[in-house]
Design a protein that fits this description.
Layout: H1 5-13, E1 19-23, E2 33-35, E3 41-43, E4 46-54, E5 62-69, E6 72-75, E7 85-92, E8 95-105, E9 113-122, E10 129-133, E11 142-145, E12 151-155, E13 168-172, H2 180-185, E14 198-206, E15 212-221, E16 227-236, E17 247-248, E18 269-276, E19 281-288, E20 292-299
Length: about 300
C-alpha cells in the first residue's frame, strides 16, 4: 500500500530527530534571498555552494557560486552567474556536472512560464559549458555515475504519464546516450506516490553496496491549497530497478524559524544535498520555505542500504 505524506510524517516522528539546526548566512546579492542550495562541493580545492538567488516578490532566479569567509557565504569572485533555478551537482568521468531549471515563456499559456532541466559540464565552475537540455516541462532530472562507468538517469514526468510528478529510472552506458527520447521513455518506479501527491529526486549517491541512494522530496497540497514538501530518501538497485520504500529524513519543525516567500510555502523543505560523515551522521542542506537555506545534522540515512 502506498503511504501518504501524513503517514510518512507519523512514522518519522517515532525516530531519532535531527540536531544542530543552523541557518546559513549569505551576503553579496543585495536584498535577494538565497535558497534551494547544493551541499558544499570541492572546486579546485575550495568548498563551494551553488544557490538559487531570487527576490522575494518574483521567481526570476540566478544561480550563484558561494565560498565561505568567516562563517558567511559570499559570491566567489569572478565566478559565472547562471540564469537558472534549483542547482545541483555531480561528477561523471571526472568532470563536474552542474544542472538547474531553466525557465522560458510558456508556448501556449500567455503570461506563464515553462521550464526544463539543463546540464553544464567542465573541469571546474570556471569553464562550464552547456551540453544537454532536457524535455520541456520536466524538473528533477538527475544523473549518477555507477561503479562500471554507466549512468543512472532519474526522471520526473508530469501530466498523462506522471500526474503531478513521479520518478522514472533508466540506465545508459554514457552521456552520449542521453536523449530526450530516452528520458521520456524511462519506466516509472512503482508504488511511490499516492493519488494527488508528487515527488522527485534531488541528489544521487553511489553507495558501497552498488545501490543508488536517492535524496529527494515528496509533496502534497492541503485543503487550503498550501504546499507541504518533505525531504525523503530511498535506495535503488540499478541492475533491476527494484527500490526501497520512501522514508522521511526531516520536517520543517526540525529547522530554525525563518522567513517564507509566501504563506502557502511555510511548510516547504526542499532537499539540497547531503554530506555523509565517517561517524555515521550526515549534514543535510535544504531550502526552507522558498526563502532561506538551512542545514541540520541527521543520522546518515544511506547507511541502512550499505549493510
Amino acid at each position: 500500500m502506498i503511504k501518504k505524506c501524513e503517514v510518512l510524517v507519523e512514522e518519522y516522528l517515532e525516530k531519532e530527530q535531527p540536531k544542530n539546526p543552523e541557518k546559513l548566512s549569505f551576503t553579496g546579492v543585495g536584498e535577494r534571498d538565497v535558497y534551494n542550495i547544493t551541499a558544499p562541493f570541492l572546486d579546485n580545492g575550495e568548498l563551494v555552494i551553488a544557490g538559487r538567488v531570487e527576490s522575494r516578490d518574483n521567481e526570476h532566479s540566478d544561480v550563484y557560486f558561494f565560498v565561505n569567509q568567516n562563517g558567511v557565504w559570499m559570491p566567489k569572485e569572478g565566478a559565472t552567474v547562471l540564469q537558472l533555478q534549483d542547482p545541483f551537482v555531480t561528477k561523471i568521468s571526472g568532470e563536474l556536472i552542474l544542472g538547474g531549471v531553466e525557465t522560458f515563456p510558456h508556448p501556449t499559456n500567455e503570461g506563464a512560464l515553462g521550464w526544463r532541466t539543463v546540464f553544464y559540464k567542465g573541469s571546474s565552475i570556471d569553464d562550464l559549458t552547456l551540453f544537454f537540455t532536457g524535455p520541456d516541462g520536466m524538473k528533477d532530472l538527475r544523473l549518477a555515475e555507477l561503479s562500471d562507468g554507466s549512468i543512472a538517469v532519474l526522471t520526473r514526468p508530469q501530466g498523462e504519464k506522471g500526474g503531478r510528478g513521479k520518478i522514472g529510472f533508466v540506465r545508459i552506458s554514457s552521456l552520449n546516450e542521453l536523449t530526450i527520447e530516452v528520458i521520456e521513455d524511462a519506466p516509472l518506479l512503482d508504488g511511490q506516490f499516492a493519488e494527488g501527491e508528487w515527488g522527485g529526486a534531488n541528489e544521487l549517491h553511489l553507495l558501497k553496496s552498488g545501490r543508488v541512494g536517492v535524496l529527494g522530496h515528496i509533496a502534497r497540497f492541503d485543503e487550503e491549497g498550501n504546499r507541504h514538501y518533505y525531504p525523503m530518501v530511498f535506495s535503488l538497485n540499478p541492475e533491476t530497478g527494484e527500490h526501497t520504500d520512501i522514508q522521511l529524513i526531516a520536517i520543517r519543525d526540525d529547522f530554525l524559524a525563518g522567513a517564507s516567500k509566501r504563506t502557502d510555502l511555510i511548510d516547504v523543505v526542499f532537499s539540497g544535498g547531503l554530506v555523509r560523515k565517517e561517524d555515521g551522521t550526515a549534514v543535510f542542506y535544504a531550502g526552507i520555505s522558498d526563502a532561506e537555506a538551512h542545514r541540520i545534522t541527521i543520522k546518515d540515512p544511506f547507511l541502512q542500504y550499505e549493510r
